[in-house]
Write a structure and sequence with these properties.
Helix content is about 40%, strand content about 20%. The protein is of the alpha/beta class. The protein has a six-stranded parallel beta sheet, sandwiched between helices. The chain is globular. The two termini are about 15 Å apart. The structure holds nicotinamide-adenine-dinucleotide and zinc ion.
Length: about 270
């Protein structure tokens, strides 16, 4: 399987990199796999009996901003301080060596692909980004870059005053991320990225495409569905699914049951 993956990489004219939370695990970031995984990453929420779905709720920014900004302020700080693992550089090296086109599609909101040097205009962040903010109302369709400094008491996971606010109306602001039961998310930035990705696929549909999927879980299957759609719809596309626990995909697509960094290194060693 690894040899076949290496031959697909070697011949690729186009790379589509699809990534879920597991892509960050080798950089030291938690995935949120099930309540158990979430509570292991955030013991304070285990004590409060709050799941990921409970925490990722836009209503907190109105009712209890110290809770809302506790979760998202902590993650803002965590993602700002994270150094992307070597796997990001391995993929960039392959793209450059093949003089290939590329696009990244991720459900991650952590900005790690930009940080690793992938071009902003070649990234689709399907659930938005923590590095952009919007009004929680929202009072307009504006979004702006998150340069807030949020202090969080990690024992209680509560943010300390002052909370980030909307510059237009003064209400508490929130990340421009699609949360659960979210009717206020402003999707324009993601929609523009989606159009760019659609155009990219249209213009590269006839070429040899390597889809490298890493760390995308089955619970919210958006990323897996994206990889599979490309893999089954486009004749010359092959999916390489790298995932230690949920690697299944039908042949001729390739399943690698290991972590992202380990899988990328194994393929790289064969090139
Ligand atoms: N960093 C982030 O931005 C971040 C982090 C957690 C969750 N989320 C959000 O939560 C939702 C959760 O869905 P999800 O499917 O992305 O995550 P998930 O937590 O449900 O699943 C993570 C997947 O990664 C795999 N995995 C674990 N370790 C890995 C490794 N070292 N290398 C490769 N894969 C590994 C697991 O087997 C699993 O399939 C998404 O919508 C995402 O936006 C984002
Ligand atoms: Zn406002």
């Amino acid at each position: 399987m690894q040899e076949y993956a290496a031959s697909i990489i070697m011949d690729a004219e186009v790379f589509v990199i699809t990534a879920g939370a597991g892509m960050g695990v080798d950089s030291g970031l938690p995935d949120f796999r099930g309540d158990h995984g979430f509570w292991k990453a955030y013991p304070a929420y285990a004590r409060l009996g709050l799941s990921f779905i409970d925490c990722a709720n836009p209503q907190h920014f109105a009712d209890n901003p110290s809770l809302g900004w506790g979760f998202y302020g902590h993650r803002t700080n965590l993602y700002r301080n994270t150094i992307p693992h070597e796997g990001f550089a391995i993929i960039k090296k392959w793209i450059e060596r093949n003089s290939a086109e590329y696009f990244v599609v991720t459900s991650n909101v952590d900005g790690q692909f930009q940080k690793a040097g992938f071009a902003d205009e070649r990234i689709l962040e399907v659930h938005g980004s923590i590095h952009w903010l919007q009004c929680q109302m929202p009072c307009s369709s504006s979004i702006w870059m998150n340069d807030e400094v949020v202090r969080v008491d990690e024992a209680s996971m509560r943010a300390l005053h002052p909370f980030p606010r909307c510059p237009d109306c003064g209400e508490v602001s929130r990340p421009n991320i699609l949360m659960f039961g979210d009717w206020s998310w402003l999707p324009d930035r993601t929609r523009i990225q989606e159009h760019a990705f659609d155009r990219f696929l249209e213009s590269n549909a006839e070429r040899r495409i390597a889809v490298i999927e890493m760390g995308a879980g089955c619970a919210i299957p958006t990323i897996r569905a994206t990889s599979e759609r490309i893999g089954w719809d486009l004749e010359k596309a092959t999916v390489i699914r790298i995932n230690p626990r949920e690697p299944g995909i039908k042949s001729p697509h390739i399943s690698m049951p290991c972590g992202a960094l380990e899988g990328l290194r194994k393929i790289d060693a064969l090139l």
